[in-house]
Structure formats: C-alpha cells, structure tokens
Amino acid sequence: MDLNISGGPSGCNSAFRSCNIEPFHGFHVAPSSSVKGPKVEVSKKDILRGQIITFLRGEGQHEGTNTDYKTFSDVSMDDCNLIMEAIAEDDNHQYIRYKLSYSQSTKQLVATLPTPIHENLLKPLRDAIDAGLASMGIDKVFGRFIVQMNSTLRGEGEAGSTEKALGTPDALVEFHNGDGGRLQLWGTEVTFLQAREAAIAKLQRSVSLNRHMRAVTLFEISEDHRHSPPAESSRAFQTLSKKPKVASYRTWLQKNDSPVFGPVTGFTHTWVSSLTIVVTTWLRPDDGPFDLYDHDTRYFASGQLSPEADLMDLQNLQQLFHRTFASIRDITISYIEEIRAEEEESSSSSDNFDISDESNEDESNIAEAPAISEEINDTDDSADPFQLVRMWVPPVLPIDWKEVMDQLRNAARQTGYTRYSAWHEKLIKRQAEEAEISSRSPKRTKRS
Asked: How many Cα neighbours within 13 Å face the side chain of 413?
C-alpha cells in the first residue's frame, strides 16, 4: 500500500505526516495514483501506521475479515501516542469506537470492538458511583461530579501541557467546576478477550501521567474456550444452512442456559462459553509512586466473581471502593479550596489597584456603605463550607454484585445472539452468491 501526502501544516511531525491521516491536521490515507509527481518513499513504520488507521476507520477490509478484534505488532510508543492523538482530535467521528490497549513490553496494539458485555456491566457501576458521589453533598455552586462514558483521559505532555491524550476508559469519574475546569479522578476498564498485561500497562500509563487520578479499576472477563463458528460438518451448520432467514432473538434463545456460569447455546452450538470474571482495583498511595505492580493490600484488592465468587476478596474490594470515595472527596475539596484562594487573591489585587477610584466616590455611595457592610457581615467567611462534606462517610458496600451479575448474564446472551446473527447473515449471503454464480454458468447441450 502506497501512502501519499495530500497536504497539511509544516509544523506536524514529519513521520506521521507521511502516514496521511485525515483527522490528524488534515491528512488522509490515499493511493499513490491519486497524486501526480515524483513517487514518495514510504517507510515500513509509516505503512504500519496507515494500516492501523485504515482498520480503525473500518476501511479496506475484506468480506471475511474479523473486524471485532485485531492485534498489531511492532508498534512503538510513539506510534501509539500519535494514533491516540488522531482519535482524540477526530471531530468528524470517522473512527469506529474501538477499544485500544497497548503493551510496551511486547510492542503490540490491540483493537477490540465493545460488546454487550462491556456495555451492560457499566450500567450498575455507573449507578453505584453516581449514588455514592451524590451523597457526598458538595454544593453545586462549586461544581459537580460526572461519570463519563468513553471520554478521553488527559495527562501530562510536554512544555507544561496537561491535555495529552492517554486513551479512552470505559468509565471515567470527573469533577467539573463552574468555570469548566475539571479533575479526572477514577477510571474503569472492562476487558473481554484482551491480554491482562496490555490492560494493566494502559492503566499504569494513565495514573503515571495524570497525578489527579485517585484510583483505577479493571474488570477482566474471559471465555473458558475461545469462540469459533459452526463447522460445516456440524449439526448446527446443517440446520442453519437450510434456513433462509436469521432467527429472531426469542427463537434463538435457550432459557434453560445458565449464562456466565455455563455456556450460551443456540441451535446446538455454543456461541459464548462460560466466563471467568476477575475484578481488581488500585488506590493511589498517600505517599510514594502509584505502581500497579505493587500489590500492597492497603492500596490493592482483587476478587473473582465467577465461576466461583470469593466472598472474602469481594469484601476487600468493597472496603477499597469505600476508601476510594473518601480519597476523591479529599482531593476535590483541596481542588475547590485552591481555586477559591486564587480567586480571592486576584480579587484582593484588583481592589488595591482600584483604591484611588474609591476616594472619588460621591456622598450617596458613602451613605450606602453601612447597608453593604451589614450584608457582607451576614456571610461568615470563617465558616467552612465543606464541614459536613468532611464528616461524610462513604457507602460501606458501594457495589451491588448481584446487580452486576444480572447484567452480565443478559450481556452474555446478547453477545451470543450477536455472534449467531452475524454468522448466519454471512452464510445466507454466501449461499445467495453461490446460487447466482451457478445460474450464470454455461449450460451443456446434448449432441443430437
């Protein structure tokens, strides 16, 4: 594949500019024949970047290509950073919503499309976090908490920048003040069929480059057996190849199945095998580095939800979630107080600058002074607006594990039906194409 420049500002990184990515400062992937002139030499690295961008935009993929999951090898950290920036600056929504995980040790970038297992799990988590933060009681005049879904996490870049794109967590707790400033505080990742190492490396990068992040949580979900479509010799293939239409969800559904703990089946084929679910969370230490590979039990907890729930470990997770809420409360109060101190200092400087104007006030303004003074005194500046917030006790059991499991059971079935439907649709389409080709083939005539 030849990649050519179609234009762009000279200040862009030259290596990335040759990759021609349209959302990134006006570049796009284009064949060499579209540009006349001397042929541009393109390195293997530029070709790799172009292939990744092309895949993420859903372009140039063959009919049989598995677009749900793809691993790219020999990807450097610079490659990853530039791709993250391109996605973060994609105002035209040209990128399919892939989840990206990068492992620096293996130099692999994994792109995965979210499944119902990703989406459904986030609903009870968001509800629980929303309820916990709302009970904290911070007055909305100071700002509010928002649980963002698929929002770009930002961190420290070069030359004092704090807006470097670090990736897109599945859920991200933020605090927004009245002026549009924000703190990004707690990220959650849900991995399904992804490598643990890549997921942890992604989380480590987020907490290393964003000092405000208080905690990160990882839900690891894996199938006991990797899914494969029905073989042509199987009973399921023989049955479905005779059906001219994709079955409805109600027809496909097997109510006797026990999703998560057992396989999800339909037409005698297993579409989702039983799941192993492990939950891990890390809390930023009071002092020292935030190292996700340090399993100090004061700041780390992990537990299994299925196939067998470890009740003691799940209780430890609840305790660490409890402390995470407290940590978020403390840093949020400090953040608001810092802003108020800066505003008071700015206001004081402005008052001193305008002191000469006050001597020119007319007598009517002087007469109003006592009334204004009384109004100001009605507000006790010495009162702590966060006194009750500091006394707030976070939820002891913030996460409802039963609700999480209910959502996961539904998600497993929905994922199974999505796999079935996509496969059966392709089968019907292939059969129609083969029938059409067969009808066009020349017919033999008998000799008289």
From this structure: 16
Q: Where are the beta strands (DSSP E) in 207-247?
A: 215-223
Q: How far is CA 181 from CA 24, 177, 184, in A?
A: 25, 5, 10
- Please tell me whether the overall predicted TM-score, pTM, comes out greater than 0.90 for this model: no
State the Cα–Cα distance between residues 315 and 303, nearest whole angstrom: 9
For residue 402, what are the contacts with CB-CB under 8 A and spacing of at least 6?
none
Q: Return per-residue pLDDT of the chain as tens, 448 residues.
A: 333 333 333 333 333 333 333 333 333 444 444 445 555 566 777 888 888 888 887 765 555 455 667 788 888 888 888 887 777 776 565 566 677 777 777 788 878 777 788 788 888 999 999 999 999 999 999 999 999 987 888 888 777 788 888 888 889 999 999 888 999 999 999 988 667 888 898 899 899 999 999 999 999 999 999 889 999 999 999 999 999 999 999 999 998 889 999 999 999 999 999 999 999 999 999 888 999 999 999 999 999 999 999 999 999 999 999 999 999 999 999 999 999 888 888 776 665 555 545 555 554 454 444 443 444 344 455 688 999 999 999 999 999 999 999 999 999 999 999 999 999 999 999 999 888 888 886 655 445 4
**Closest by alpha carbon to 64, among 433, 435, 430, 434?**
430
Helices (H) and strands (E) in the chain, counts: 12, 13
d(CA 140, CA 266): 50
How many alpha carbons fall within 13 Å on the CB side of residue 226?
3
Closest to 75 in 3D by CA, of 98, 37, 49: 49
Locate tokens 């992040």: which residue?
A: 213
> Whose CA is closest to 274, among 290, 285, 263?
263
Closest CA to 398 of 310, 326, 332: 326
How far is the C-alpha of 75 from the C-alpha of 56, rounded, in Å?
15
Handedness of CA 241, 243, 246, 251 (dihedral sign): negative
Locate all alpha helices (DSSP H) within 354-386, ordered by sequence.
355-358, 363-377
- Run of H or E including 70: strand 69-72
Distance CA 253, CA 416 (A): 9
Return the axis-axis angle of helices 311-353 and 116-134, rounded to nearest 10°: 60
CA atoms within 13 A on the CB side of 373: 6
